[in-house]
Amino acid sequence: MASELMPKRLELLSELVARTMPLALLVNPNNGSTEPMIPDMQEAARMKGVQLHVLKADNEAEIDAAFATLVQQHAGGLVVGPDAVFDNGREHLVALAARHAVPTIYFAREFVASGGLISYGVSLTGTWYQVGAKVGKILKGAKPADLPVEQPTTFELVVNLKTAQQLGLTVPPSILSRADEVIE
C-alpha cells in the first residue's frame, strides 16, 4: 500500500513548491517495490507537468551522495519512498533536508515529528485499531484463516509549520484544511 500512496505524495509536494522546479524521488534500489513504483511516479509527474529525477540509495553514504546530486540538479523538492533504510535513518534524512533547504515529503508522521516538513501515509494508530479488532474476533472464537485480509483504511497528513517557515514556504490553506495534524 505504501507505494500506491506515492503519486499522492508527489501531488501534495507539488502544491507546496514552485511548479517550475524539478522534483526528485529518493528510493532504495534493493526494495522490491521500487522498480514498479518508478514508472507510476514518472507518469504522475508528467501529468503534473513536473520533471522528476530518480535518486537511488540504500545506505547513509549513498543518501548523502543523493542529496549532493539533488542540489546539483536544483530540485525544488524531494519525495522519500517508503523503506526501512530511510525509516532507520530518519534523523539523518531530516537533517540533510534541513541543511540543504529541500522541501521533503515523507511516508510517515515520525519524520515530521522529527522536524521534517510534511508526510502522508498510513496511520499507525488506525492500523493498530484494525489489528485489535482482529485479535478480538480471534479471542471470541473466530478462526484466523476465516478472517479476511484487510488493507489500512486510515491515512494521515501531517504538516510541520515551523519547518515550512524555516524553508520560507507558506503552506496553502488547501493543505492545512486537509491536515490531520499541524505541528507549530
Give an overview in words.
The protein has 2 domains: 3-122 and 155-183, Response regulator (Rossmann fold); 124-153, no CATH class. 46% of the residues lie in helices and 17% in strands. It is built from 9 helices and 7 strands, in the order H-E-H-E-H-E-H-H-E-H-E-H-E-H-H-E. Helix 1 runs parallel beside helix 2. It has 184 residues and is α/β, with parallel strands linked by helices. Strands 2-1-3-4-5-6-7 form a 7-stranded mixed sheet, sandwiched between helices.
Secondary structure layout:
Elements lengths: L5 H11 L6 E5 L6 H15 L3 E5 L3 H13 L4 E4 L3 H5 L1 H10 L4 E3 L2 H5 L4 E5 L1 H16 L15 E6 H6 L6 H4 L4 E3 L1
Parallel strand pairs: 1-2, 1-3, 3-4, 4-5, 6-7
Antiparallel strand pairs: 5-6
Helix pairs in contact: 1-2, 3-5
Question: What descriptive keywords fit this protein?
Answer:
seven-stranded mixed beta sheet, 184 residues, 2 domains, single chain, alpha/beta, globular, Rossmann fold
The fraction of residues in strands falls at: 15-25%
The helix fraction, in percent, is 40-55%
The side-by-side strand order for the widest beta sheet comes to: 2-1-3-4-5-6-7
Mean pLDDT: 92
How many individual domains?
Answer: 2
Helical stretch tally: 9
* CA-based shape: globular
What is the CA-atom radius of gyration, in angstroms?
Answer: 17 Å
Oligomer: single chain
- Strand tally, please? 7
SSE-based structural type: alpha/beta
Low-confidence stretches: none
